[in-house]
């Protein structure tokens, strides 16, 4: 499995960004996907997860009501729409899936929320 994230950048507090993750190398439509983030000195944390069909979605409490995860199984893509961004959302965001008992991560995309 291989993931390439994009869409990160610098945004002011209250702004929005949409992250994209292009997946390849496995049967994308049969696996759950998730977004995680990490800041220096802290452990990587789950931000949002979506089941293979998109029927089940979960969010970290810190992003509920602001972030939306979605997927397009026809395009092998997963997205994270981030609204009402806060300075504490600053982190490197990673795409993730467990495929056949192995963990796969993308290279990450930096999101910086600052005025």
SSE topology sketch:
Blueprint: E1 2-6, E2 9-11, E3 17-24, E4 33-38, E5 45-50, E6 57-59, E7 67-72, E8 77-82, E9 91-99, E10 102-105, E11 109-113
Parallel strand pairs: 2-11
Antiparallel strand pairs: 1-3, 3-8, 4-5, 4-9, 5-6, 7-8, 9-10, 9-11
Characterize the structure shown.
- It is a single chain.
- By secondary structure, the protein is mainly beta.
- The protein is 0% helix and 53% strand.
- The chain is built from no helices and eleven strands.
- The strands form two sheets. Strands 2, 4, 5, 6, 9, 10 and 11 form a seven-stranded mixed sheet that branches.
- It is globular.
- The termini are far apart.
- The model has no long low-confidence stretch (mean pLDDT 96).
Strand/helix succession: EEEEEEEEEEE
Total beta strands? 11
Mind describing the biggest β-sheet?
Answer: 7 strands, mixed
Fraction of residues in helix: under 10%
Indicate the proportion of strand residues: over 45%
In whole angstroms, how far apart are the ends? Answer: 37 Å
Average of pLDDT:
96
Number of helices, where a helix is a run of at least 4 consecutive DSSP H or I residues: 0
Specify the structural class: mainly beta
Gyration radius, in Å? 13 Å
Low-confidence stretches: none
């Amino acid at each position: 499995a291989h993931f390439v994230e994009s869409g990160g950048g610098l945004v002011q507090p209250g702004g929005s960004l949409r992250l994209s993750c292009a997946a390849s190398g496995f049967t994308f439509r049969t696996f759950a996907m998730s977004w995680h983030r990490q800041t220096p000195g802290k452990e990587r944390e789950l931000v949002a997860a979506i089941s293979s069909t998109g029927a089940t979605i979960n969010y970290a409490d810190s992003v509920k009501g602001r972030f939306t995860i979605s997927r397009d199984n026809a395009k092998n893509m997963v997205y994270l729409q981030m609204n009402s961004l806060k300075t504490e959302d600053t982190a490197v965001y990673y795409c993730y899936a467990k495929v056949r008992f192995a963990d796969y991560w993308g290279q990450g995309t930096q999101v910086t929320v600052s005025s």
